[in-house]
């Protein structure tokens, strides 16, 4: 069936994020969901593919000389076409193992405010990986469809897609994006802020994976009402140079998390200030929907509610909203119709 959003039918769709890449098949749903990582070895001008996706997660920050873990996207933007091509080729080969399709028509989600250069870079990576032809879909639209929002209605809806490298706020109505603002930063920047805090405040050096786990632990503790439970943190002491473990009360990270959430609140306020009055009025009833993996960031919902006066809902399985929306678009429509 032809998708009304793309004009032609696609067999597979890709949600290529800063942290995770998901490949979705028209008949099989999400058939690949792994970290956006690629490991290459050897000469810089002629690198050899070692691994991509999930196996590379454990290699991060642990590679020997001559081997490098590369992240194709940074802050939501494709910055390493070579690594992206390897990762897409690997993802497609894993998917093809389970499905039989050749040179599939592909739909790729991109930030709504993507530049032509960024779009061209993604097109090159996909084509070099043997994925052709390619069409693009705005990610906030896919996220809204995946969250079962009635996007076709003549009614304003605000969606905030909280990814690892981008945070996008989009005002949607009548099946399209009316207004969008994005922050080239997301959950990965919060991880970096946690690393900085431990560095300066505790003279402890930790890696990105540890910082991300601290973030999850704080969120879990506060969701089960145990916000005071200390979090175990392991790393290298900057004073002794030795492996070190310390226990930290989550409250210590409150300021770091607050600063991160305030950037998102400011972005939403920017969109609200430019929203036409009829759509603005709709938001009093509709509220704001959070999607993306970062939607569960501790205290984010409360901070947005306090800053905007609007109700905030976190979508179910928020990190999979874009993938679910792309799946729906592959089938030529959206669940709202
Ligand atoms: N429970 C949680 N609490 C806080 N953050 C979370 C949680 N689960 C996932 N995240 C964060 O969500 C981010 C990944 O979300 P997602 O998969 O939507 O991003 P992405 O699509 O890869 O990135 P982008 O769209 O920005 O390029 C990571 O930064 C991760 O740490």
From TrEMBL:
ATP binds at residues 18-20, 164-166, 212-215. Keywords: ATP-binding, Cell shape, Cytoplasm, Nucleotide-binding. Pfam families: MreB_Mbl. SUPFAM superfamilies: Actin-like ATPase domain. Belongs to the FtsA/MreB family. The gene is mreB. It comes from Sphingopyxis bauzanensis. NCBIfam families: PRK13927.1. Forms membrane-associated dynamic filaments that are essential for cell shape determination. Acts by regulating cell wall synthesis and cell elongation, and thus cell shape. A feedback loop between cell geometry and MreB localization may maintain elongated cell shape by targeting cell wall growth to regions of negative cell wall curvature. It is found in: Cytoplasm. This is Cell shape-determining protein MreB. One of its GO terms (cellular component) is cytoplasm. GO terms for molecular function: ATP binding. CDD domains: ASKHA_NBD_MreB-like. Forms polymers. GO terms for biological process: cell morphogenesis; regulation of cell shape.
